[in-house]
Amino acid sequence: MPSSPVANRRYRGSSAEERRAQRREQFLEAAIQVYGEQGYRNATVKAVCEAAGLTERYFYESFSNSEELLVASFQAVMRFLFGELEKAIAEASGGPVERARAMLTAYYEALQGHPQSARVFLVEISGVSPAVDQALEASLHEFGDLIARTLSPRGDGSAASDPLLRAGVVGGVIHVALKWISSGYSQPLHEVVGAAMRLCLVLRGR
Amino acid sequence: MPSSPVANRRYRGSSAEERRAQRREQFLEAAIQVYGEQGYRNATVKAVCEAAGLTERYFYESFSNSEELLVASFQAVMRFLFGELEKAIAEASGGPVERARAMLTAYYEALQGHPQSARVFLVEISGVSPAVDQALEASLHEFGDLIARTLSPRGDGSAASDPLLRAGVVGGVIHVALKWISSGYSQPLHEVVGAAMRLCLVLRGR
């Protein structure tokens, strides 16, 4: 959800391959910005190219179509987001429950800090195409893994390993976010995290 | 999710208004069938008219466009589904937990019994348009109400009244369904209901 999650690497001088990789990242960055401002369905390739400061010829060097750019930008945002969550977990003091709380806090803070991107990558993109749905599903699975790992570092983990329950917990965490977003972020962060924690704790077993 | 949830009423003889209402129901029924077979995005107005045995002129008598028919058919399916859930609750013996279990069993049985409609009305239709999203959100809210009412008929209900937690529980129940659907309904029904129950019980308080 950052304004610029993919702009970290800088390419200097060097090969055609490196310049091509840099242009690809410029497009990802531009896509996140343009989709956030206009929504994915309203955004044209032209608008993304303008924001990237590159021509359409370069667009088609890296992507076959808008949908491919959407998947790539979604994945870039998710990589950034999961990095933030891992960081929050690593920096939290206390046991699994405190670490899970720190992770959820980081998650909802990221959504709140980037409401436009949150809308695009959480709400708008489902149902765009099978490829996009697959990318979404993979990220739900990864999120479930992360929650389960955080909450049962060496507990019995019997509940945490049920794929249906994991999927349910992740769906719950996301629908708490959707409700929060649709209410204009009206509830305070700690209540949002509190509701999500109640759902996550189901993974701690009976 | 029935093959024919809206074909109960029969109109005999009578007024132009009644015949018009009957044609509207024929379109709803045809839409549920055609969307189930082809998916909403692949279904044309023409295909729906053919399935209804009516001309496009009659289509535009009742609906401005496909999206309006989608919302109306979604609402018809949801009315039927919630009716089934209420019936299961009323017929269940035992306390709130047993009634909730009976309701969830009826819910997942309905999805399993009508996998094509389940895909359309649970997966495909999100992100179609703001009007469709609004209809979806209203049905999520109604589902949350029903679960909370079933589980806390006169308990303290403090957890059940938190709108964020309710939304989270409903999201959980739905994502259990999505996971089940994407795995080709591989887990037995009682495991699916068991996972969903664990999430619903969060509404019973600390």
| Biggest interface and residues each | A-B, 37 and 37 residues
Oligomer: homodimer
Q: Class by helix and strand content of chain A? A: mainly alpha
How many separate helices of chain A? 9
- Poorly predicted sequence stretches spanning 5 or more consecutive residues of chain A: none
Please report the first level of CATH classification, the CATH class of the largest domain in chain A: Mainly Alpha
Strand segment count of chain A: 0
What is the CATH homologous superfamily assignment of the largest domain in chain A? Tetracycline Repressor, domain 2
Number of domains of chain A: 2
Radius of gyration of chain A: 18 Å
Secondary structure blueprint with pairings:
2 copies of one chain form a homodimer.
Chain A: H1 16-38, H2 45-52, H3 56-62, H4 66-91, H5 96-113, H6 115-124, H7 130-151, H8 163-182, H9 189-200
Helix pairs in contact in A: 1-2, 1-3, 1-4, 1-6, 4-5, 4-7, 5-9, 7-8, 8-9
Using brief descriptors, characterize the structure shown:
homodimer, 206 residues, Arc Repressor Mutant, subunit A, Tetracycline Repressor, domain 2, 71% helix, elongated
Question: Can you walk through the features of this model?
Answer:
2 copies of one chain form a homodimer. With 206 residues, chain A is mostly helical. The first copy, chain A, has 2 domains: 16-63, Arc Repressor Mutant, subunit A (Orthogonal Bundle), CATH 1.10.10.60; 67-204, Tetracycline Repressor, domain 2. Chain A has 9 helices and no strands. Chain A has helices spanning 16-38, 45-52, 56-62, 66-91, 96-113, 115-124, 130-151, 163-182, 189-200. In chain A, helix 1 (16-38) packs across helix 2, helix 1 (16-38) crosses helix 4 and helix 1 (16-38) crosses helix 6. Chain A is elongated. Chain A starts with 15 loop residues before the first helix and ends in a 6-residue tail after the last helix. In chain A, 38% of the residues are buried. The A-B interface holds A 123-128, 133, 137, 140, 159, 162-165, 167-176, 178-180, 182-183, 187, 191-192, 195-196, 198-199, 202 and B 123-128, 133, 137, 140, 159, 162-165, 167-176, 178-180, 182-183, 187, 191-192, 195-196, 198-199, 202.
